[in-house]
Design a protein that fits this description.
Shape: globular
Order of helices and strands: HHHHHHH
Strand content: under 5%
Number of domains: 1
Mean pLDDT: 88
Distance between the termini: 5 Å
Largest sheet: none
Low-confidence stretches: none
Number of strands: 0
Structural class: mainly alpha
């Protein structure tokens, strides 16, 4: 695995998005939802497909692990988030507005988004977001 510091800004934003979704759904961090939306709206329409793929992968992974349907609502929330993200071709203005909303709700997440720093989630939840070594 490539060192996160060697990753492109876009790769770090992708991880930021994934961890924001995870913080929201599994750790009940409501600011994680706004962080995920702000990150998703940062990408242009072509690159936003990467975000959709991340959601599809999370959906598949969590569905596979949920033989007892304990995460049924969580998985449904993933589908709802995907619907929101794909509902329209978000503009730069939409992205800026969502970032402002995030800044009001959680300035630390907003700054981390601006810096492409997904570690904000591993700092807040060190036991849930462990970065694998090579």
């Amino acid at each position: 695995m490539k060192d996160l510091n060697e990753s492109s800004f876009e790769e770090r934003l992708e991880l930021y998005f994934e961890w924001a979704v995870t913080a929201w759904l599994l750790l009940k961090d409501e600011a994680g939802l706004i962080a995920a939306l702000a990150a998703a709206k940062t990408f242009n329409s072509t690159d936003r497909q990467i975000i959709v793929t991340i959601l599809d992968n999370l959906h598949a992974e969590w569905s596979r692990q949920d033989s007892d349907n304990l995460f049924k609502e969580t998985i449904k929330s993933l589908e709802d988030l995907k619907d929101i993200i794909t509902a329209k071709d978000w503009t730069v203005e939409d992205g800026m507005a969502e970032r402002e909303r995030l800044k009001k709700v959680n300035p630390e997440y907003a700054e981390a988004l601006n810096n492409g720093d997904p570690h904000v989630f591993s700092r807040k939840y060190p036991n849930q977001f462990i970065i694998p070594l090579e």
